Amino acid sequence: MAVKNRMRVIFLVSLLVLSLSLTACGQPGTTPSNAAVSGLSGSITLSGSNTVQPLAEILANAFTALHPRVRIVVQGGGSSVGIKAVNDGTVDLGSSSRELTASDPKLVVFPLARDGIAVIVNPQNPVNNLSKIQIRDIYSGKITRWSQVNGTDQPVTVVAREEGSGTRTAFEEMIMGDQPVTRGAILQSSNGALLQVVRADVNAIGFISFGFLADKSVKGLSIDGVEATLANARSGAYPVVRALYFLTKTEPTGLVKDFLDFCAGPEAQKLITSEGYVSVH
Amino acid sequence: MSQSTNIPQNQAGGNRPQILSSASHKQSRYAVNRMAKIAMIVCASSSFLILLVIIAFIFREGLPAFIEVGFFQFLFGIDWSPSRGMFGILPMIAGSLAVTIGSIAVAIPLGVACAILLAEIAPFKVREALRPAVELLVGIPSVIYGLVGMLVIVPAVRQIGGTGYSVLAACVVLIVMILPTIISISEDSIRAVPRKYKEGSLSLGATQWQTVWHVLIPAARSGIGASIVLGIGRAIGETMAMIMVIGNAVMVPTSPLSPARTLTGNIAVEINYATGLHANALFATAIILLAFIVILNSITMALFKRGFRGQSES
After folding, report:
1. How far apart are the first and last CA of chain A?
2. How far is A136 from chain B (nearest CA, A)?
């Protein structure tokens, strides 16, 4: 009997703890006035491009701060994962950092932001500027030493993203033309992993979304003398800018539409700019 | 069918000690017995079923790539560039083989030597200190090995030459990863050799080394073989740590310092963004990987089984 009683106590205590933690989760630190204003509730699931993911998380946080009874679950996975998931109906909203192609399903596309792709090197590398042609020659394997582009007499470690990556697809379109990326290129499967390689190797060169340039552990190169800055990306002077998208299966309604409207609105676009992306406006 | 005939037999056998147990108690015992049996059958067949489902799924998704690209074109093509419609996985096969052979070649002698040391030679205290350490190594998640490889081994290899992301770095990481498996299983099998073999050998005047080399190792051969099979399995199947240190470049490695890509890495690196034929080609890579593991395992098993039999017959 004593054992049974003890079990019951444990059960009750754990129930209590669970319910307390659940209520704590249900009320993120928002001001009560906001809570009173918003009538929206429900949840949105989102998955897709890992370039869009950090931005989507920030937008989701901003949205749920306005509407505390809304939950938005943001997952990564990759552009193709997002496209597939939204088409299968496993998520409400997909995201993509590449254009939809003929082999992709028909989806409704919402431009979210534009994103510059920075060509990055280790901060210890003396090179600050490369021409588009030089970058192409480095990535196609024609230039193999930094001394060929006014750098140190060291071999170039070419680092790229994997085939099919939205960032790589955009980079190939805008820089490589029809030249293939050299076989010897080190390939990493996310922006973060690529960043890590360039951070660790003095001779590395890589390319990455502007959104990941915020930490100064790598150096963004000027391309044809145009610095990799948001202002240059917005003005169109910077040559490597691509679009980021949200995707839905059908014309959005209800909560998803509210969220998409929010993302297109001035407040969200201001956030997008402050995170290092280019606003669609 | 045989199970259903078994149960009445058991009941008949259990009828005898009637005085000791009441009828209801007995019935519940048989019910438990039957239920346990059914539960076992369900568990055993479900694991087999899962295997079948996995194989069926991989083949369903992968076969279109073989048909579209051509089996030999896929297997022996040296160009892998899905965006250009080129699907040849020879570089990945070469990469997987290079890291597996490279790491196994070092890990087997090292591991078996360490197992002999732990089982036969080391004093009790040393053994008690080393064994838990080795066992702990088995349980460390591979991403940790990858991280250490990326931050320590890759820069070290860079000092020798190249970018550091290389077959050599991958081999070093794999050696560390598979050593514990080989050591602990080999040690157990050496320890399981009947004591009289060793005593017989020593009493005939053989030295300790002669005893280890000519008696213990041959007798423990199948166990050592099993440890090598598991080691190969881990080496060829390792994904995360390999992605982190091998560089994932699509090329047939020309030297230990050149980057490469493994079959597992090929799938893991690209699956996120793959659609259509590209995705099919990755599943086809999985078919090749599966075939590889089956072939390597059966070769190793055959080698060690024959060796063991030959030894015991002579």
Report:
1. 71
2. 17
- DSSP class of residue B247 equals B
Q: Render the burial of A134-159: b for 16+ CB within 10 Å, e for the rest.
A: bbbbbbbbebeebeebebeeeebbbb
Cβ of B182 under 8 Å from any chain A Cβ?
A: no
Please check the confidence at residue B182 and state whether its pLDDT lies above 80.
yes
- Residue among B165, B259, B276 minimizing CB distance to A103: B276
Nearest beta carbon to residue A183 from set B155, B163, B250: B250
Q: At what angle do helices A266-274 and A254-264 cross, to 10 degrees?
A: 60
Average pLDDT of chain A? 84
**8 Å CB contact of A84 and B275:** yes
- CA A148 to chain B, closest CA, distance in angstroms equals 18
Q: Looking at residues B202-207, what average pLDDT do you find?
A: 92
CA–CA dist A255, B310 (Å, integer): 73
Kindly report, residue by residue over A83-108, the tens digit of the pLDDT: 888 988 889 999 988 888 787 888 99
Q: Which of B84, B163, B272 sits opposite A81 (nearest CB)?
A: B272
- DSSP labels for A14-44? HHHHHHHHHHHHHS-S--HHHHHH----EEE
